[in-house]
UniProtKB/TrEMBL annotation:
UniProt-recorded Gene Ontology molecular function terms: NAD binding; UDP-glucose 6-dehydrogenase activity
Function in brief: Catalyzes the conversion of UDP-glucose into UDP-glucuronate, one of the precursors of teichuronic acid.
Protein name: UDP-glucose 6-dehydrogenase
Family statement: Belongs to the UDP-glucose/GDP-mannose dehydrogenase family.
Catalytic function, reaction form: UDP-alpha-D-glucose + 2 NAD(+) + H2O = UDP-alpha-D-glucuronate + 2 NADH + 3 H(+)
Active site: C266 (nucleophile)
GO biological process: polysaccharide biosynthetic process; UDP-glucuronate biosynthetic process
Binding site for NAD(+): D30, K35, T86, T121, E158, K269, R334
Positions bound to substrate: F155, L156, K157, E158, K210, F255, I256, Y257, P258, G259, G263, K327
UDP-glucose/GDP-mannose dehydrogenase C-terminal domain span: 320-424
SUPFAM superfamilies documented for this protein: 6-phosphogluconate dehydrogenase C-terminal domain-like, NAD(P)-binding Rossmann-fold domains, UDP-glucose/GDP-mannose dehydrogenase C-terminal domain
UniProt-listed Enzyme Commission number(s): 1.1.1.22
């Protein structure tokens, strides 16, 4: 099938590449000429495990092309995906500028019937706005073309995006057009062989499903962080509590890890946007508001623990930070808890020696050159003469350090474990003080 994808970010590039891998002829369009140029040269602008090999192979095979030129790309697509960003607007609601710009572009160049599939996370009612925008522009051109607008929200996880795209848990299709559903069933058939993962629904329900999924996941994290804060105060260990509640199949073990707060390009903005969507509908979503509040406070938790340990005296200290990305296996630092921590440490007069396996370049872009930040090439290098180690992202490579060696590198032996990846007793046995999240202990 001939497919066009607008947006070559995490969602667009991965979707386009996986569709090309299944034999479709895919054209990816982006307004960022630099990005398109890099992709054309075989340079992948994001880190996503397994993506580079697939992009290079499909590009070389002629099934995956990159362009800034919308007109030929629109003429190419039997199916046209919209996978552009929907960042938070000033009031927290989703900013649809990019989505509606693509709709206008489609309206300007559409020459024959097509199926427009929205993958961006958008407020309920956006498919109607996209449809109306395209229809308006077509009317301005004095032509009428039959087209469908489908909601097909994306559920891939950064860090495992290729795998999620190749083996989706579910493929939500919101449409009332039998023709569009048939075409999308055909397009997704190679991803849907083992059992039927397609969940058909109306457009508005599909749009809300994406927000509901992210809000539920964010709620689980804030709930566990709330429990961790209680555990800390009553001398209980949240890790034991986590095992205790996860064993109930109604609760389960997935996604109940306490930590330094959720970040990334989706949960913070989607919880906020859903809150605004609810308010616009006349409903005050107090649970969502609490989820956001708990998360905001949690992002400062590591800094509070560090201040407490050093008696609020961080001036001139050097803090080693392991992990800058908002989660492992990505270089994405959007809304990452590390960003809040670094700003707080700098404000308190500390220097930071940071290491992340993939996000070093991203951090350089965000923070620029500054005297109080060293972006290290090795994890061990970050420890040299540091007053403390703070683990912010749970990369696998951080999980089993030799604590005895670590103690010799650090100037003062203390670990702040923002993801509870270490056994406090093992750390303390190496003569290192340990602070975790919600790890109050009575002994
Ligand atoms: P991104 O910021 O990584 O990429 C968006 C891309 O769209 C950029 O390359 C940008 O230049 C391009 N773009 C903007 N306007 C354009 C236009 N008019 N024409 C062509 N390209 C244009 O975004 P992302 O992380 O891929 O997210 C895209 C959407 O998918 C968002 O709505 C997001 O909420 C949703 N989503 C993201 C994830 C994720 O894990 N990142 C998962 C599921 C859903």
């Amino acid at each position: 099938m001939n497919v066009t994808v607008f947006g070559t970010g995490y969602v667009g590039l991965v979707t386009g590449t996986c569709l090309a891998e299944m034999g479709n002829a895919v054209v990816c369009v982006d307004v960022d000429a630099g990005k398109i140029e890099r992709l054309g040269r075989g340079e992948i602008p994001i880190y996503e495990p397994g993506l580079e090999e697939l992009v290079l192979a499909n590009h070389a095979a002629g099934r995956l092309a990159f362009t800034t030129e919308a007109a030929p790309a629109i003429a190419h697509g039997d199916v046209i995906f919209i996978a552009v960003g929907t960042p938070p607007g000033e009031d927290g609601s989703a900013d649809l500028t990019h989505v509606l710009a693509v709709a206008r572009t489609i309206g300007q160049h559409l020459g024959a019937g097509s199926i427009i599939v929205n993958k961006s996370t958008v407020p309920v009612g956006t498919a109607d706005r996209v449809r109306a925008t395209i229809a308006d522009v077509l009317a301005g051109r004095g032509i009428a073309i039959d087209f469908d607008v489908v909601s097909n929200p994306e559920f891939l996880k950064e860090g495992d995006a290729v795998n999620d795209c190749m083996r989706p848990d579910r493929i939500v299709i919101g449409s009332d057009s039998a023709k569009a559903i048939t075409v999308l069933r055909r397009l997704y058939a190679p991803f849907n062989r083992n059992h039927d993962r397609i969940v058909l629904m109306d457009v508005r329900s599909a749009e809300l499903t994406k927000y509901a999924a992210n809000a539920m996941l964010a709620t689980k994290i804030s709930f566990m962080n709330e429990m961790a804060n209680i555990a800390e105060r009553v001398g209980a260990d949240i890790e034991q509590v986590r095992h205790g509640i996860g064993s109930d199949p109604r609760i389960g073990y997935h996604f109940i890890y306490p930590g330094a707060g959720y970040g990334g390009s989706c949960f913070p903005k989607d919880v906020q946007a859903l809150h605004r969507i609810a308010r616009a509908g006349g409903y005050e979503a107090s649970l969502l508001q609490a989820v956001e509040q708990v998360n905001e406070a949690q992002k400062s938790r590591l800094f509070e623990l560090i201040c407490q340990h050093f008696g609020n005296d961080l001036g001139g200290r050097t803090i080693a930070v392991w992990g800058l990305a908002f989660k492992p296996n990505t270089d994405d630092m959007r809304e990452a808890p590390s960003r809040r921590l670094l700003e707080q440490l700098w404000q308190a007069g500390a220097r930071v020696q940071a290491f992340d396996p993939e996000a070093r370049e991203e951090a350089r872009q965000i923070f620029g050159e500054r005297a109080d930040l060293v972006l290290c090439e090795q994890a061990q290098q970050a420890l040299q003469d540091a007053d403390a180690l703070v683990v912010v992202t749970e990369w696998k490579a951080f999980r089993s350090p030799d604590f005895k060696v670590l103690a010799t590198r650090l100037k003062s032996a203390v670990i702040f474990d923002g993801r509870n990846i270490y056994d406090p007793l093992a750390v303390e046995a190496a003569g290192i003080a340990y602070y975790g999240i919600g790890r109050g202990r009575s002994v």
